[in-house]
Every structure is written in structure tokens, then in C-alpha cells.
Amino acid sequence: MKKIIFALIFLAVLTPVFSQNNSRNTPTDMYYINIPIEKIYTTGLGYVILYRKGTNQIATTSIPVEWFTDAAGRAEMIRLPAGRDWPTMSVFYKNGEFSHVRVYVHRISGHRSWGIFPGNVDVRQYFTDTETFKIEF
Question: What percentage of the chain has pLDDT greater than the value 90?
Fold first, then answer.
């Protein structure tokens, strides 16, 4: 009986050692930057976002509508109830390169943070490069 108890204790001590993940992959360096949004404009090509950069400065970026599909998977829009912490966008980087972006917005598109461009504005100028995502700090 003592041998069985000793064997069970021995196995209980050694099992965690062998159950570790022994993959040879190096850990990924994943981080994000959270950026406050001033205004989100809906267009047929995607979303044009005005965001704060630095003190009292506004910059513009765009996210193509194709990025929100599961196939591309580079963008996600999360609609939230009213709050003071959004609209914001979180830009995720993996190993120093852009991975994906999450945009946290008010769920009602009539909210003051949402906007629509006037009909005479050519929005194609914001979507010239749909393969990369650039933000200024």
C-alpha cells in the first residue's frame, strides 16, 4: 500500500513537468495602443476616422470595409452603449508590425461621434492604400 501511495505522489509531482508546452516557437511580442477618436465618418468604401494625436492635434486614418470581413480579419467594430471611454480604437501590433485594429463606438449611428461626408467630397483620397494601416503620433 505504501508503494502505491508513493508512486501516486511521485506521479503527481512529475506530471506538471512533462505537461509543459515544449514547442520551439518563440513567444510573440504583442502590444496595443489605445487612441481616442473624435469623429467617425461612414462611407461606401469604409470608415474615415479623425483621432487625437498629441495635444490639440487631429489626424486622419481610414479603414476599408473589406477589413471587417472574417476573411481579412484586420478590423473589428464593437458597438457599445453610451459611455465616456469611447469612441476609441485599439491598434494591435505583433512583433512590431500591424496586426489588427478594434474600433469601439457608440451603438447608435446618430450619436455625435458619427458623421457623414457631404456629397461633394471625394472619399477615394482616404483609401489610396488599403493594404496598410498608418497612424501618426
Answer: 28
